[in-house]
Task: structure prediction
Amino acid sequence: MALCLFYVTTAEAQIPPNAFNYSAVARGPQGQPIAGQNIAVRFSILKSNATGSVEYVEDHMVVTDPYGLFNLIIGGGMIQSGNFNAIDWSSDNYFLKIELDIQGGSNFYHMGTTQFISVPYALYAKSAGSISGGSSGSGFTHFIGEAFGGGVVFSVWKDQQGVEHGLIVDFKDLSKGHIWSNLSGSGAEIGQSARTSDGLKNSLAIISQPGHNSSAAQLCLDHSANGFNDWYLPSTTELAILWRNFYIINKTLLNVPDAEILEEANGSGTIKPYWSSSEMGQETAGVLYFHTSSSGSNIAGYKSTEYKVRAIRVF
Result:
């Protein structure tokens, strides 16, 4: 039986301390919402990778609403093992494994494991403490949703020297319909250099191919706006980070003159995703929808198809 969850997590001040919200829609094999039903959810936090050591496990019992939606607090469930408050979010990469029993028992079905791409910053700052070399300790000068650097900040972090960095999304789409590349079919695969989480590296790899022209990557690399010319086509990882924060980003974009929100559909109602720079095969590359049941999930799109393009840059 195939089941699916569409979820978002947000870090807030919660009880118990350091916990954060989790919202999801539980759906059945044909995509129908599992509505008004007692279900059981198990969260496992894994360290280093998707099959890494289990740091913490908790279970929840919850009733879905008429739309299959349920809301939980990670860090506030029935503890099965570990100590949530003892997790050092700054020490490593962490992954969330999600399991579901739609009958509300303990026969859990593995729904997937996903990385905490944007680790809750309040938790990161708490565990990181004072970072040597940084002028502001564990605090951040910039924030998600800030209009800065030619666009809107959608991720912030500090390097090992305590220097602050972030990702910025452009105020507007560069195109509502543009091909990924004219390189498609046999011999077009550009290899591992185009499958990383580094969108700039991907973009440069794409345009380096003989015979290349008119790619979404080229469109971004040639882009110059608001005093900056170092834009590029985001990777699937970078798009996923943007999706996780798109509600906040859109709130800012709505208040910027002539800016365009990250949207689901064009004026005719045709749903179009955003291109990533991450190649998935000889004829396909990763795309991401923002407001549909597949939101936050990268799927394959044919390179010759015209999808939306949104440039990003890093500071």
About this structure: Confidence is low (pLDDT under 50) at residues 6-16, 118-122, 124-138. The radius of gyration is 20 Å.
